[in-house]
Amino acid sequence: MKKMKTIEITLVSMFVVLIAIGANITSIIPFLVVGGVPITLQTFFAVLSGLILGSRLGAIATSVYAFMGLVGLPVFARFSGGFGSIISPTFGFILSFILAAYVGGKIVANKKTVTPYIIAAFVGTFINYFIGTNWMYFAYKFWADAPEGFTYGMAWLWMLPPLPKDIILAAVAGVFAHKMRVTVLTKGQFKNINLSA
């Protein structure tokens, strides 16, 4: 692995913390629960890490986050953690963050306009939903206690309540990441970071 610079380690660490905060934002701000559905910012920050940091650093940040949770640090939703999380029906969403960040970063590499950033954010969100929902389905079918009458269609129906929120946040992530890349990250120390990798 390419040796990381101090500024890169700092940015990766910042996104690890942001994803952890995003996972538990409703514990900090309880009113972010609408109709019983928590408005978490996990996916938002995971996708944002790839768009802002690039595919390599974004994938590192999301991998570090997943690793920290698996070794027992309470960084997952509801301040959970531990290796047992790997058999959780929702662990696929956490795994998806790595691919979502990587693919998103690849899409926006060397792009100057905002459109590719918005597209990349939607692609990253789709990856999150696809991997997470399929993992949840297979978890309930093979090793977790599935609700009575559980089907593949039901798994996708469960994803409908948070979908509008994630569509809006994906658009916000794309616009915000583009703004950051063409302004802040083109100045000072940030100019020495290879964000296209």
Topology:
Blueprint: H1 6-23, H2 25-28, E1 33-34, E2 37-38, H3 42-70, H4 91-108, H5 114-142, H6 152-157, H7 163-182
Antiparallel strand pairs: 1-2
Helix pairs in contact: 1-3, 3-4, 3-5, 3-7, 4-5, 5-7
Tag the structure with descriptive keywords:
197 residues; Arp2/3 complex 21 kDa subunit ARPC3; mainly alpha; 7 helices; 63% helix; two-stranded antiparallel sheet
Number of strands: 2
- Estimate percent helicity: 55-70%
> Which structural class is indicated by helix and strand composition?
mainly alpha
Residue stretches low in confidence (pLDDT < 50, at least 5 long) are none
Shape: globular
Commentary on this structure:
The chain has 197 residues and is mainly α. It has a single domain, classed as Orthogonal Bundle (Arp2/3 complex 21 kDa subunit ARPC3), CATH 1.10.1760.20. 63% of the residues lie in helices and 2% in strands. It is built from 7 helices and 2 strands. It has helices at residues 6-23, 25-28, 42-70, 91-108, 114-142, 152-157, 163-182, and strands spanning 33-34, 37-38. A hairpin with a 2-residue loop joins β1 and β2 (37-38). α3 (42-70) packs across α4 (91-108) and α3 packs across α5. The chain is globular, with a radius of gyration of 17 Å.
